[in-house]
Amino acid sequence: MATSDASCYTIVQDSSVEYPSAADLRRALEKGSDDIKIDTLRKIIVSTINGNAQPNLIMPIIQFVLPSPNKQLKKLLHFYWEVCPKYDENGKLKQEMILVVNAIRNDLQHPNEYIRGATLRFLQKIAKDAELLEPLIPTCRSCLEHRHGYVRKNAVFAVYSIYREFEHLIPDAPELMSTFLAAETDSTCKRNAFVFLAHCSMPKAVEYILSVYDSIPSLDEALQMSIIEVIRADCKLDSSHRARYIRVMFELLNVPSYAVKYEAATTLTTLTQNPAAVKAAASSLINIIIKESDNNVKIIVLDRLDSLRERHGHVLDGLIMDVLQVLSSADMDVRRKAISIVLSMTTSRNVEDVVLFLKKQLQRTQETEFEKAPEYRQLLIQSIHVTAIKFSEIAASVVHALMDFLGDSNNPSALDVVAFVREVVEKFPHLRANVTMRLIEKLNEIKSGKVFRGVLWILGEYIESPSEIQTAMQEIRKVIGEIPILASEQKLLDDVPAGEEEATSPKVETGGGRPKVLADGTYATETAYSSQTAARLDAVRAAAKPPLRTLLLGGDFFTGSVLASALTKLVLRFEQKASDKAASNMLRAECMLIMTSIIRVGQSKFVTVPIDEDSSERIMNCIKTLSELESEDAVQEIFLKDTKKAFSHMLGAQEKRALEKKEAETTKVAAVQVDDLLTFRQFSKKAADEAVDYDQDLGRATVGDTHEDFISNLSRISQLTGFSDPIYAEAYVKMHGFDIMLDVLLVNQTPNTMQNLCLDFATLGDLKIVERPSVYTIGPHGFQSIKATIKVSSTETGVIFGSILWESPNMSEACVILNDIHIDIMDYIKPAYCNEAQFRSMWTEFEWENRVNVDNPMSDPRDYLAHVMKATNMSCLTPEGATSGDCDFLSVNMYARSLFGEDALANLSVERTAAGTITGHVRIRSKTQGIALSLGDRITMAQKNNQPVSAPALKQMISPALYHYFRTPLPYAQTLALQEKIHQLQLLYRKTSSHKDILLLLQHRPVYTAGRRQTEDSVQDERTRLTNIGADFVTTARGGELTFHGPGQIVGYPLIDLSRSSPTVSVRDYVCRLQKALELHLLEAHGIKHAPSDHTGVFLDANTKIASIGVQVRHRLATHGFAMNITREPLAWFDQVVACGLADVKAGAVESVKGKEIDIHAEIPGLLKRFGQLLDREFRPMDIAKEGEIGEAIAAVEEEAVRVGDWANSPRL
């Protein structure tokens, strides 16, 4: 017997208000009304679920709540008995639960059927507690005979739950259910009892099916579904009843329920491969599709029908006309799927009927009330196109019908017709004459420039005879109108009467309009005024004109260049075919006049958009060809052969790819070898007639473990602290949907117990910590695993950082700063695809753009494209054929979509330089800023990874940092304000990447500073005492505890951007570099070796500290810094406090170690040198006169330092 799944509870959000005490809860239960008891019991349930069980409240609940007849209270009691602690610490059932069992027994005998049924449902929730259930078995069994169906159906499932867990409690349950099923009349109860037999006693379930064999088609729908499921399961184990089952499935195909029909059709194809059965199942599925109103159901059943067709080939071809009836659906997805199936079922036997039906549907789309007519028309045209190319015998009958849609207002439909006609005239030469003549007749109906270009190309390529060329020229003249175009338009302008001018031109007062952006990017004010010329020009433009002339005057000169190319081809071909030189010269002159007229009118005031340089050059080349180069063989080859040959080659390549795809899909292995790999159904797509094993699939989905690669797991581990830290920490980072799961391992590396240890995380970006980790205690050399969940809401680059805090043996607080965890956004970005129209629409709509310049040593643009696609997970939308060939320039569109629904578009435009490198840019657009910036960073990093940069070169790429040394000691408060002002300016300038890194070196006037861990109350007494001895006292936001700054001590404030370098410098790494620079300076400048210590700072020995470090990092910008004692002057001040919380540590100084006086100003060059080495930066002196606001702020602080005068040289004790 399979074990049951763990109980599932609803997660309840606990209120943040103060929770009442146990005494208050007891008082409310004892003396409150039913409403108060309901509210109190709800609070107790929530508290129990959240871990506060309060077992001492069980008895008050039994005393004061259990006797209540209130139905809502009884329901809440069921929830409470489900979650409350029912066993004592020894694992035995509590004595109080005897009273609970007695109350449940009374409810099972309650005269109200609702209370009985709800209690039976409750028994299913406590089905694992055998001691509770055993006294209730007789009462539960008696409920099977209750008069009300609601009680009986819940009693069946209660017996099932008990029998599944503890078979010995009801050993005769299968026989009991068989007897119950035979006598039961309620359909739901029968279904529940049958499900019991199906899961607990399959032979009895089969026996029941055979006993009601003839009446199965008339049973209730739910019971029929359960019978079908049992039939599938039984046929996997025993096929002795297969024939009878097949007959039942045939009969169930005719029942009214669509769900039963679908399951019966699916099961029938798994039981037999007989063509009649397959055809009957398919017919039933088609009937469901036609009659079902839910479009999602239609698509699901169409998928099943399609898989049947793939499996059984031409068995279903006879049903093709039935499938065509599905096109009556208004949903376009359903229509597309149905058309796809129809095209795959079309053969030479039924193609005429299919095309006739599609043509009738095409005619219906012209009716105004037809739903989604433009989209449906385009789909039908594409389908007829595919069919006509596949079956050439019907091409002639459909091509003329489709050409009626060349003038369709729906441009995509007309373009599909052009594509179809172009392919027909290439593949079927015998149809060319009729098709081209029909195209010539339709020229006057065409409205779209794209359609005109396609038709003109066809006419220029495939009109052969001189008479057809002359006919085509006559029609082209009609659609252009009178030529020269400029002269005729000017004549119309001159003929506009004054009355019409006044009627057509409204009065517009002269005045300033909104600013306009000119072509060079500058602004200008537009002034509108009415004039006779403008009004007459508008009247000429508004006059009715032939279609091609309208397009040209509207600025479509690309169509004009295509017209020039087509006319050139017609003239050259006419000269080849005709012997009449006079007619040939006349035709050439006429065509040259048309081309010249297009250029002239494009440069005039009659067009809305002037002719572009490219179109003008194309038309001029055609004029030059006709005037000077028509006899050249190369010209004849280019115009009359090359373009047609390229089109033929393109069609051949398309057919080859389609054939290869079809062969790949239809290739079947004829034999199975003994050493072939086994195919597991759960890992592959299910075939239509393959048995569906829901039990195995469900078991694998809920229980089966997926084992990940060991190396992959190791790559997800981030080291958070160093091996020499008191506590070692590492985190296993796993992406799980929209969550980041952090499994942090902590190792206490000290011989002391770490008490009240807290792992404190914080985030940058669109990351949110779900819950704060608890406080732990870790023994000496002990381990602790802590899990944390972080929600991700967008693809903005995120950073997780934090610290570990604990109490050391002397009760002082210790801290370790963690290394940062950078979240890889590529886990959330997946390749996606969209069509050209969707790409252009989104490109116009999206407002965020990130432009990344490209300078890469790769030599092949296509290799760089593959490199970028791999780095960004973006897909290339530009067809492979468009990027093939040998070319130094590459421009492609790319697209990706995040798990959060964010679209990311990119355009890559690069070229190969003479030096063999790649240069250009990548433009990324998105609706939100985060994904655009993140993808840009990925491309930048990919370039750096592909082109390693040496350390000196990297130093040169990052702008030098500036430093300023204050020779006069500064007041601490003003210096703190200066740091904050520079920090805010850096934040502001960072948006334009113009912020500068600054190092301030100085001495302070005597001051004691407290860190952010110390509250104002805790330092109030110290503040009073220390200010009395002559020092200032300031509370700051830096790390660390109380310390001293004053003359004789060099203080450094590096105000730098930690994200400027690549990769970003973590906070811990930054602190280590500061400490290393100080240690290096002491060693190289003074020969002083530091002593290792577990604490931050530089120590001369275990009890002498010479330099302190305390930093604050906000938005990756660092403030505060370090302090190093040079002279003996600070030592007396340090003796007045416990510096940095280290009671057994005293302050040291360079002068004390060296035994001689040290010039503090001489230390500055050496410190700058070492900091430059450790921070990989070059430090240059700041010219404060040229640094704007920052320079002014620094100058103001220096003036204040001079103004305040002298300071105390030693403590006034």
From TrEMBL:
Residues 993-1179 form the BPL/LPL catalytic domain. It is found in: Cytoplasmic vesicle, COPI-coated vesicle membrane; Golgi apparatus membrane. Its main location: membrane. The keyword Cytoplasm applies. Residues 496-515 are annotated as: Disordered. Keywords: Acyltransferase, Cytoplasm, Cytoplasmic vesicle, ER-Golgi transport, Golgi apparatus, Membrane, Protein transport, Repeat, Transferase, Transport. GO terms for molecular function: lipoyl(octanoyl) transferase activity; structural molecule activity. The coatomer is a cytosolic protein complex that binds to dilysine motifs and reversibly associates with Golgi non-clathrin-coated vesicles, which further mediate biosynthetic protein transport from the ER, via the Golgi up to the trans Golgi network. Coatomer complex is required for budding from Golgi membranes, and is essential for the retrograde Golgi-to-ER transport of dilysine-tagged proteins. This is Coatomer subunit beta. Belongs to the LipB family. PANTHER family: COATOMER SUBUNIT BETA. One of its GO terms (cellular component) is COPI vesicle coat. PROSITE patterns: BPL_LPL_CATALYTIC (PS51733), LIPB (PS01313). The keyword Repeat applies. It comes from the Eukaryota. Pathway: Protein modification; protein lipoylation via endogenous pathway; protein N(6)-(lipoyl)lysine from octanoyl-[acyl-carrier-protein]: step 1/2. Oligomeric complex that consists of at least the alpha, beta, beta', gamma, delta, epsilon and zeta subunits. It is an enzyme of class 2 (transferase). GO terms for biological process: endoplasmic reticulum to Golgi vesicle-mediated transport; intra-Golgi vesicle-mediated transport; intracellular protein transport; protein lipoylation. Its EC number is 2.3.1.181. It is a peripheral membrane protein.
